Amino acid sequence: MGRKTERIEKKMVKKKKFKKEILVGWDEKAVKDIANESYVQTIFRRFCHHHLAVISLAVLALLVAAALLAPVIAPYDPDEIVGTFSGAPCREFWLGTDQIGRDVLSRLLYAMRISLLVGVMATLISTVIGVVLGLIAGYFGKGADMIIMRFTDMVMSFPYILLVLVAAAVFKPGLWNIILILGFVDWPGIARLVRGNVLNLRETNFIKGNIVAGMPLGHILFSEILPNTVAPILVYATSVLALSMLDEAALSFLGQGVQPPTASLGNMLNGAQSLTVLTKQPWLWIPPGLLIILLVMSINFIGDALRDALDPNSRG
Amino acid sequence: MAKYIMKRILIAIPVLIGITIIDYGIMCMAGSPLEMLKGPRVSQAAVEAKAIALGLDKPFYVQYFVWLGQLLRGNMGYSVKSYQPVSEMIRSHLGPTLLLMGVSLVVSLFMAVPAGIYSAIHQYEKGDYAVVTFSFLGSSIPGFFLSLLLIYIFTVKLGWLPSSGMTTLGTEGGFGEVLKHMIMPVIVLATSMAGSNIRYIRSAVLEILQQDYLRTARAKGIGRFLVINKHALRNALVPIVTVIGMEIPVLFGGAVIIEQVFSWPGLGLMTMSAISGRDYPVIMGVCLLSAVVVLAANLVTDILYALVDPTIQLE
User: Fold this and answer.
1) How many CB atoms lie within 10 A of CB A73?
2) Of chain B residues 177-216, which have a CB less than 8 A from chain A?
3) In a domain, A30, yes or no
4) How the protein sits in the membrane (chain B) (predicted)?
5) At B121, which CATH number?
6) Which of A248, A253, A254, B118, by CA, is between 20 and 30 Å from A275?
7) How many distinct structural domains can be found in chain B?
8) Do B285 and B162 lie in a common domain?
9) Model confidence over B258-314: pLDDT tens digits?
10) What part of B 107-136 touches A (C-beta under 8 Å)?
11) Hey, is the C-beta of A40 within 8 angstroms of any chain B C-beta?
12) Which chain B residue has the Cα nearest residue A246?
């Protein structure tokens, strides 16, 4: 009996502490600040609740900076033979050298540049295509909607990587072809999302008011409807970015993506298909793999936090 | 119900035809498969004779209609490389792929469903954070890199598991043998699927937990166990069905890469060699098959919805 009361007392104490903390967190000044803050500030504050996302943002910023500054910070030329064949990591070459004596660290920095470029460009292309098709389908409806949505169904019914592989084999693998292929394959999700939002927005009074007032179509579509659906597009685009970076890696790994000597994170892993590299030279394939995971995971965490932060129904 | 299914099938037909046209268009831009044949020892006349024999001298739309006409008669054409009928090739490679896909799907559900529900019930606790972080890791790790890591650990370092094929050469095969070869590919496919599924199921269950009928169930005082296992789980079936439907195309694609890495003798491996050899009839066959599977999976998902959730009306 005595023990039980003790336990309950302990719980009470815990709860009291908890309450105190909440009170401290919500003092009058803070409440006032929240009431006065702008939209961007609100989103930023909510974003910061997601600790992993804040860390991810820092990691991503660091990696992007390293990729952009690659010509400055890379110790060697990525395509130049500077050391012994397949040398293990040492003081001179921090991550060792590859099969033909190029510095792995320098190649890694340049590879990250290429992989980020592919991801960002493919995402931009697919977002633009998706937004335009989604706006047309949602706003004009009827025939346009039917045709666009059936076309979307077709692209979606393809096993995605199969389509990419066939296209990559057909159009000769290479940097810009990969970007275009990924860009032209990733848009259906965004198109559906935008169409759904436009269908909802078209029924709202402010859009109806615009139509009645005789506003030009371009104004209604791009200045009234589009800004109101930017948040979900942004969240979706982060997942497209993560996916297209994964796809680039897979394609290049299979030898159908970015072609050597240009280094990409995927084609640096390509060497690991040989048994000697896999078993004896882990410094050649583990670092690029870890880097892909790190990049994609940070992007995914940031996307997740953005989803919560941009959700108009979320509290806090 | 029957009317709805008929309607869906009728809608699917133009989509399918569109897919074959896109396919054919892309591949005709690629150039002739006979380019591979050309060499010093093959005369121009022989190449032309071969082109006429394969019907490659006709314009692209004629070739397409010839192919479509054959297809309707159940003939998917012959491989340009091995002269085998495509339907025969697909049939012989389908089994291993279906085995791999089916087992991976089941394993991923066994991972994702309990984990997703656990993490929704324990929202914002340590266990929840661990599950969510794992799920992000699962969906962020490239399948081929995970395969390499597993091969490095289990085949190279520990020597426990074989890394390629479905059976060891020179042995009889048998259930145990196949199982051993399947462990690593299944882990890879199931991890990447479970990654996205956990989050999907978690957020779906979180939504269910906030519903009024669950508050009522709790208010009845029937206990936490019954509330969750009887009232919440039944309703969580809808998102789980959605997840299965979404995974089918992903599985088909993921299998291509994983089969390549593990030399699993399935459709993916066959497709990769057809792609690199520009074996059009085979590629067309595989694309068509996968499109049919995906469309069928969508249809089955919608029908399952109605079975799981009586409030959904199929219109």
Assistant:
1) 13
2) none
3) no
4) Multi-pass membrane protein
5) 1.10.3720.10
6) A248
7) 2
8) yes
9) 888 888 888 888 888 888 777 777 888 888 888 888 888 888 887 877 777 767 665
10) 133, 136
11) no
12) B142
Give me the pLDDT at residue A299, please.
Answer: 94
Could you report the per-residue pLDDT of B232-242, keeping only the tens digit for each? 877 887 778 87
Within 261-280 of B, beta carbons closer than 8 Å to A belong to 261, 271-272, 275-276, 278
My answer on whether B45 and B151 are in the same domain is no
Residues 6+ apart with CB under 8 A from B282: B79, B80, B81, B86, B89, B270, B271, B274
> Which residue has better confidence, A312 or B189?
B189
What's the structural domain count of chain A? 1
pLDDT in tens, A172-182: 777 888 898 88
Pair (B170, B259) in one structural domain: yes
Tokens of B47: 């190449």
pLDDT of residue B169: 64
Whether residue B32 has pLDDT greater than 80: no
* pLDDT tens-digit readout, A304-316: 888 888 876 665 5
Q: Contact, A67 vs A112, CB < 8 A?
A: yes
Q: Is residue A10 in a domain?
A: no
In this structure, is residue A202 part of a structural domain?
yes
The two structure tokens encoding residue B199: 């989050």
The whole-model pTM stands at 0.83
Vertex B251 angle, CA B177 and B313, to 5°: 130
For residue A249, what is the domain's CATH number? 1.10.3720.10
Identity of residue A161 = I
- Residue whose entry in the numeric block shows the structure tokens 């093959």: B42
Average pLDDT of every residue of chain A: 81
For A118, the enclosing helix (H) or strand (E) is helix A104-140
Q: What is the pLDDT of residues B89-135, one digit of tens each?
A: 888 888 888 889 889 999 998 998 889 988 988 888 888 889 988 99
Whether residue B62 is found in the same domain as residue B13: yes
CA terminus-to-terminus distance, chain B: 9
Q: At what angle do helices B60-72 and B280-308 cross, to 10 degrees?
A: 50
pLDDT number for residue B312: 64
B148/chain A closest Cα distance in angstroms: 8
Q: Which of B94, B71, B79, B74 is nearest to B17 (CA)?
A: B71
| CB nearest A159 (choices: B249, B260, B276) | B249
CA distance B308 to chain A (A): 24
> Would B32 be classed as within a structural domain?
yes
Q: Do A160 and B286 touch (CB under 8 A)?
A: no
Selected for mutation to probe chain A from B147, B148, B163, B262 (highest A CB count within 10 Å) is B148
Mind telling me how many Å the CA of A82 is from chain B's nearest CA? 27
Comparing A157 with A62, which gets the higher pLDDT? A62
Does the residue A217 lie in any domain?
yes
Q: How far is CA A77 from CA A268, A285, B36, B254, B258, in A?
A: 16, 19, 37, 35, 34
Domain holding B52, by residue range, is 2-72
Per the domain annotation, does B116 fall within a domain? Answer: yes
Tell me whether residue B220 is in a domain: no
pLDDT band for A292, please (50, 70, 90 cuts): very high
Give the domain-ending residue among B14, B42, B72.
B72
Shortest distance between the Cα of B15 and any Cα of chain A, in A, equals 6
Q: Tell me whether residues A297 and B152 touch, CB distance under 8 A.
A: no
Would the CB atoms of B142 and A249 count as touching at under 8 Å? yes
The residue behind tokens 């030399």 is B263
In a domain, B141, yes or no: yes
Amino acid symbol at B98: L
CA–CA min distance B231, chain A (Å): 26
Interface residue B26 vs chain A (CB under 8 A):
yes
Q: What is the pLDDT of residues B64-97, one digit of tens each?
A: 888 788 778 777 777 777 778 888 888 888 888 8
